[in-house]
Each structure stands twice: as C-alpha cells, then as structure tokens.
Amino acid sequence: MTLLGADAYLDHIRTESARFADVLATCPPDARVPSCPDWTAADLVAHLSGVQHFWTGIIAGRPVAPVDEDAEGRAPLASYDDELARFRSTHDTFVATLAAADPAEPAWSWSGPDDQKVAFTYRRQAHEALIHRLDAELAAGQVTPLPAALATDGVHEALDVMYGGLPDWGRFTPSEHVVEYRMTDTATSIWTRLGTFAGTSPEGKVYADEPDQHVVADPGTAPALVVAATASDLDAWLWHRGDDARVAISGDDAVRALVTGLLGQPID
User: Fold this and answer.
1) 121 FRET partner, CA 20 to 30 A, in 109, 160, 176, 264?
2) Which domain holds residue 153?
3) Which residues have a Cβ under 8 Å from the Cβ of 17 and sit 6 or more positions away?
4) pTM for the complete prediction?
C-alpha cells in the first residue's frame, strides 16, 4: 500500500511548499517554466497560492460544496515579491486549517464518492505541492529528486486518481492486457488493466470504446508492458516533467503505443 499517514502528508505539504517558495525567490518573475510552457515564475507562484487558498475554503467550509470551483480567481498583486509573500501567508493559513481537521470528516472533492473526505485534500495537496516544487526547480535550473515514499504514492495517485478515475455514469470494459509500473528503488509495483471506456456524460457527450486503464491488484500474470524507473523519475514522467531517458519501457509494441497515448493526455 502506498498511502502515507495524514501527518506525513502534512509534513510534505510544508516541506515542498517551502522549497517551492525558496526556489522561486531566486527566479526573475518572467522566467519560463519548461514543464508548463505557457507559464512564467509569476504565474506559477500565483497558481499554487490560488490552489491552497481554494482548498483552505473547502476545508474551513466542510462539507459544503463550493459555489465556484475556480481555484485561481484572486486578482494578481502589484509585484512578484508581493505574490511570494501572499503565497507564504496563504500557505500558513492552509496548513493550520488542514491540521485542525480530522481526515475522516466529510469534505467536498472533485473526485469520486470514496474521496469526499478531508483525507483527500491531505493527499492531493501533498502531491500538488510536490509537482509544482519540481516545476519551480525546472524554472530555476535547480532540480533535486522527489522524496521516494511520497513519489511512490504519487505514482499510485497519478494512475488511480488523475488518469484512472471512473465517473458513475461511465463503464469500463477490461481487456486481457495488464501493465506493471515498477519502482526500482522502493520495490513497489502499481498494476493497471487496459480496456475501453463508454458512457454518456451529464452534459450529453457520448463516449464509446475509448482506450482506458485502471489500477488493479497484482493479477499474478505476466504484464504485457513493464514501465520501470525510480519512484522519483516515474512520478515526474507520469506528470510530464521528465522524458523517457530515465524510464525503461519493455514489452508489446502495440500495448506501448496504447499506453503512450493514454499517458499523453494532460493531467495538470
């Protein structure tokens, strides 16, 4: 099981957010973010500041759903230094609000019915801070590895939640093919089963035979494809923050092409 405890997630939110702010303080505001080509350093700090502000409101107002799900609705400030100061203040309020909430209490999230708890915010925001810390480091040219335990959980979260969510109006038809995502430094593997997705969204959009994959327990059979790397490199790769150079992919070529297409979708 990759899940960490609430205290561990909270510590990671603090640590990764502090690193995020410290690194961005070394960047000019117009520095480009290679992993988010449309963003500057100023855009990046405003983004995570807005996200943590939004989730402060979700936890403080639990379990009521937000009226507006826009996490970045705050007006920009006059200077980059002001934005960094607002981020640090917003972060302190967010951490204090989250630390005072029981992870088991009900709270809104955009995810499925099992994720309508404060625990969702603990986990999701640890990974949000982690990946944007990496964005900041990429902008500054100061990249450091991701913590192995958090990155291992991040691989699971990316595959299970960010790529693998199944809405209640959809259905998944599994195929015989399974994929093993193997983390070489933490002796952990996450398995997915390939298949197709179909359904009609509440807005009336029809999906039919869309390629899809969902996390499953170890099936006890040989995988059609193995994707192997350290937890840090694999988590970064799944989030499109790293190329194939540090990831070893082996197996069926057709399955590889299918998985490449699935993972090519944006999850930012």
Assistant:
1) 264
2) 149-263
3) 48, 52, 91, 95, 129, 133
4) 0.95
Q: Which residue type occupies 97?
A: T
Which residues does residue 11 pair with via DSSP β-bridges, in sequence order?
none
Pair (132, 190) in one structural domain: no
Asked whether the predicted pLDDT for residue 72 surpasses 70, the reply is no
| Three-state DSSP class for residue 200 | strand
**pLDDT band for position 94 (50/70/90)?**
very high
Residues 123, 39, single domain; the answer is yes
Out of 120, 144, 168, a domain closes at 144
Report CA-CA distances (Å) from 88 to 57, 65, 155.
16, 26, 27
pLDDT digits (tens, 9 = 90+) for 112-163: 899 999 999 999 999 999 999 999 999 999 999 999 999 999 999 999 999 9
